[in-house]
Amino acid sequence: MADSSTAGATASAADQDNLADPTEHEDAHGDADSGGDQVNTNAVKDPADWVTGGEPMTGPQSSYLHTLAQEAGAEIPESLTKAEASEQIEKLQQETGRG
């Protein structure tokens, strides 16, 4: 039987990895990447064409975007959509050298 504190620590580490860069771990619909050998063609889809692009940005997007904005000295509106957040993340990654 696994020690519950060890299992919790492992889950937390995995959660932290997922927060590192939400644009790498989500496909165009905000779904987690399966990590399989299949090519994910949605990952290069223009955010303006995303089916769920008009929905509010996700928690991981918000967290990462605010981290990047702080590093870049930029202000980010709180009410961005998923597509707008993704575009801002890409812009700020280039500005901060994280992209």
Describe the structure.
By secondary structure, the chain is an all-alpha fold. It has four helices and no strands. The protein is globular, with a radius of gyration of 15 Å. About 23% of the residues have low confidence.
Summarize the structure.
With 99 residues, this protein is mainly alpha-helical.
Main beta-sheet annotation: none
Amount of helix: 40-55%
Topology pattern, helix = H, strand = E: HHHH
Radius of gyration equals 15 Å
Shape type: globular
List the helices and strands and how they pair.
Blueprint: H1 4-20, H2 22-25, H3 59-72, H4 82-96
Helix pairs in contact: 3-4
Keywords:
globular; 99 residues; mainly alpha
